[in-house]
Amino acid sequence: MYIDVIGVDGSKQFGCNLCSMLLGESVLLDAGSASMLSGQQQQEVEMVLLTHAHLDHVLELGFMIDATVTIRDEPLRVMGSKACLEIVQKHYMNDLIWPDFSHIKTSIGPALVYEIIEDRKWFKLPGEITAWAEPVCHGSGARGFFFRSNTGTILYTGDTGPTDSIWEKGSEMDDLKMIIAEISFPDQKTDVAIASNHLTPSLLEKELKKLNKPDVPVYAFHLKPWERHEIEKDVARRFGGRIVILRRGDRLEF
Ligand SMILES: [Zn+2]
Ligand SMILES: [Zn+2]
């Protein structure tokens, strides 16, 4: 199994792409940069798994369903925590900001269906993958995920500030292959990171100590673009080579 990195930036500026990753061909993890996928790729996405309802993670969900509504074979399944989906339905796809595609009837029924993910239970995804949603400290119904294939498990934090249970759960997993973790701000801006429930390199270092697996590789994403240079310096100083900062176009295999 693989994850293709479509967008990794923690905000939108020229040349930056908001968070979206393709898990195999048919699962899109967050929809910040869904329009970076070709029309064919968008059509092949069966489900969008949302970590939470912040704009940088849901922004292009509306454009993706708009572009594929007349050509889909099945309704697009939009999955997330109950709180996350309620926010998307009430404040985004509400027939005011954007059409409510879950009420638009097509030849295949509604164009989009919402599916609540239960916390802390394995559920199936296409391609022999199972996933687990773990609440994290961020708001807007935020969840991190574990993705497990027959060759190993990935921990994906989504957006989060300091939190505990996802690291405790990760510590139980003997087959943990990699961690994809957010870093949004440099160490110098720790106060802003704490106030907005995000991480800095030093905060992530403390988080990783909650996980008793010092050799598992870590990939960082969600850097604020204007802080990238400072974060890279902090990461190099603090971690040497253990943490790799993801870039658009990277592929992670597990
Ligand atoms: Zn967020
Ligand atoms: Zn975000």
Question: What keywords describe this structure?
Answer:
254 residues; 7-stranded mixed beta sheet; 16 strands; globular; binds zinc ion
Protein topology:
Blueprint: E1 2-7, E2 20-23, E3 27-29, H1 39-44, E4 47-49, H2 55-58, H3 61-68, E5 76-80, H4 82-91, E6 105-106, E7 109-110, E8 112-116, E9 123-125, E10 129-135, E11 143-149, E12 152-156, H5 165-171, E13 176-182, H6 190-195, H7 201-209, E14 218-221, H8 228-239, E15 243-245, E16 251-253
Parallel strand pairs: 3-4, 4-5, 5-8, 12-13, 13-14, 14-15
Antiparallel strand pairs: 1-2, 1-16, 2-3, 6-7, 9-10, 10-11, 11-12
Bound molecules: zinc ion (2 copies).
Describe this structure in words.
The chain is an alpha/beta fold and 254 residues long. The chain has a single domain, classed as Metallo-beta-lactamase, Chain A, CATH 3.60.15. The chain has helices at residues 39-44, 55-58, 61-68, 82-91, 165-171, 190-195, 201-209, 228-239; strands spanning 2-7, 20-23, 27-29, 47-49, 76-80, 105-106, 109-110, 112-116, 123-125, 129-135, 143-149, 152-156, 176-182, 218-221, 243-245, 251-253. It has a 7-stranded mixed β-sheet with strand order 8-5-4-3-2-1-16. A 7-stranded mixed β-sheet has the order 9-10-11-12-13-14-15, covered by helices on one side. The chain has a two-stranded antiparallel sheet with strand order 6-7. It is globular and about 55 Å long. The model has no long low-confidence stretch (mean pLDDT 96). One zinc ion binds next to helix 2. One zinc ion binds next to loops.
